[in-house]
Amino acid sequence: MNQSELILKVASISGESKKAVEAVLKTAADVILASLHEGGEAILPGLGKLTVIDKPARQGRNPATGEAIDIPARRAPAFKAAKALKDALNV
């Protein structure tokens, strides 16, 4: 399901306009991003938890040439599925 399909589905179920649903989803995404950027976490009830993990700098290899390259440290998003979601998928 892509973004426009999600908006259509939520709008049809909720009875809200597509514009209103799109605005709510965009606002939710902005709030979640801000929370993660501050080093926090975002809990999506029934779905799971988004957090940020710190990945250390490391050595890598260019697969084409075999040359060693330095991969810098970075922050990456991580998602842990809620038990309710796991159970719903394994019925």
Low-confidence stretches: none
Tell me the total number of β-strands.
Answer: 5
- The outline comes out as elongated
Helix content: 40-55%
- The CA-CA distance between the termini, in Å, is 21 Å
Q: Mean pLDDT across all residues, rounded?
A: 94
Overall number of structural domains = 2
Q: Quick one: biggest sheet?
A: 3 strands, antiparallel
Strand content range:
25-35%
Count up the helices. Answer: 3
Strand order of the biggest β-sheet: 1-2-5
Radius of gyration: 19 Å
Derived from helix and strand composition plus strand pairing, the structural class reads: alpha+beta
- Helix-strand pattern: HHEEEEEH
Your description of this structure?
With 91 residues, this protein is an alpha+beta fold. It folds into two domains: 1-38; 51-91, no CATH class. 43% of the residues lie in helices and 30% in strands. The chain has three helices and five strands. It has helices at residues 3-14, 18-37, 83-89, and strands at residues 42-44, 48-55, 58-61, 68-71, 74-81. The strands form two sheets. Strands 1-2-5 form a three-stranded antiparallel beta sheet. The protein is elongated and about 55 Å long. The model has no long low-confidence stretch (mean pLDDT 94).
Provide the descriptors you would attach to this structure in a database record.
30% strand; 3 helices; single chain; alpha+beta; 3-stranded antiparallel β-sheet; 91 residues
